[in-house]
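Problem 12. The chain below contains 310 residues. Write out its predicted structure in token notation.
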Amino acid sequence: MVDTSAYNETGEAQFGDYFALLKPRVMSLVVFTALAGLLVAPVSVHPMVGFASILFIAIGGGASGALNMWWDADIDRVMRRTANRPVPSGKVTGDEAMAIGLTLSVMSVVMLALASNFMAAGLLAFTIFFYVVIYTMWLKRWTPQNIVIGGAAGAFPPMIGWAVATGSVSIESVLMFLLIFMWTPPHFWALALFMKDDYSKAGVPMLTVTHGRRATRNHILVYTILLAPVAIGLGLTSIGGIIYTTLATVMSLGFLKGAFDIWKRDEKTAEADAYLTERKVFKFSLLYLFLLFGALMLEAALRSYGWGGW
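Solution.
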């Protein structure tokens, strides 16, 4: 991490710059999966409590993004896909990003505790700590397993949503956590493959840098194989049903095919088509997670009318 205050020479920051500081794309995934955890829980929540809780979870996710940009400004400036972020581009200073991140972190946790319960607030606090300290400050620059262990931070939102409704953790919320946890490595390693030298230039020990692309392709296949039973197994719990389980099976087979297509490629072929297969698998992985959590919410909606389930 470096001092980025000297980089802010491009003019006064706009509202959009501060909003971008919160990583809205990542925040949208946090909101979506947290909402799924909340809606599929067996305990109903007052709409205002649910809205406030999701809002504070989103703010906590945004706070994590701001602190991540503050700490990672030096490597973000080197990578093409992150060079235009508010801090490395100089639109927002590092000190501002840190202050915003810390303020929003404390506010989101305190307000979630007041809006729902201490279990949900504690999980949110741990999620922010895990993403900022364990992943960003430690694992990301230390080990090629950074995205494996660090992926836990992105897997907590459905557990938090479930805790908002129930005040507890259960096998269903743990499996939702594991679904995202096992999905994260193949999702990001597919990205790392077609981003080519970005991580190497930034000095980030991504698996593609430390062990090469062949090892990365092997890992993608293994983790996708491990992901499939988790995704399908979730359908056999109280929040699953025939719709979800059927979709999880079909989508997992599609993901496995994509992982196998990546695995069987050689680097000469990959370079020749500009890593089109890796890009397709990366995009498919986003659809995969969206559809599976969407199916869980559909099952919950049908169940409320006496339909769905098994």
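Discussion. The longest helix spans residues 276-304. Students who got a different answer should revisit the alignment rule from Section 12.3.
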